[in-house]
Amino acid sequence: MPDVTATLTAHHRACDELFLAAEGAAADGIWPECEAKLAAYCTEIERHIEFEEQVLFPAFEQATGMTQGPTTVMREEHAQIRELNARMVAAAARRDSDEFLAASETFLVLMQQHNLKEEGVLYPECDALLGPQGGVIGEGLRAFKAPA
């Protein structure tokens, strides 16, 4: 059974591919494609974030007793990710490539740092702390639906 690290890291990569396709379409001025890829990306990243915040982080917090540790930082970064996503969606709707690409540049820096922390620290800690339960949690991402 795949663990938290393998499952959630793979989902990060799938989200990255959708985002990069949207960014490429924006750079080329192909706005309908940009909007479609961006919508698909936003749906998947929101599902990922909601899964972490509703399932993974509470399990980590229960196992460690820490509620003001790394999960707090991740939640704050999730809020920043959501804000940048909203900026990019609005820019794409206006066909504003300068604003879209400025927001996407900030987003990429944030996501690289965020993913490094999750993939290099938090997910491996979850695997170590949660044992077999971590695999079950990781597998739960496949069936998880973010609230509408």
What does this structure look like?
- With about 150 residues, the chain is mainly alpha-helical.
- The protein has a single domain (about 5-145), classed as Four Helix Bundle (Hemerythrin (Met), subunit A) (Up-down Bundle), CATH 1.20.120.
- The protein has helices at about 5-25, 30-65, 70-95, 95-130, 130-145.
- α1 (about 5-25) packs antiparallel against α2 (about 30-65) and α1 (about 5-25) runs parallel beside α5 (about 130-145).
- It starts with a helix and ends in a 5-residue tail after the last helix.
- The mean pLDDT is about 90.
Total count of helical runs of at least 4 residues? 5
Specify the helix fraction band: over 70%
Termini separation (Å)?
29 Å
Report the β-strand fraction as a percent range.
under 5%
CATH topology descriptor: Four Helix Bundle (Hemerythrin (Met), subunit A)
Poorly predicted runs are none
- The second-level CATH architecture is Up-down Bundle
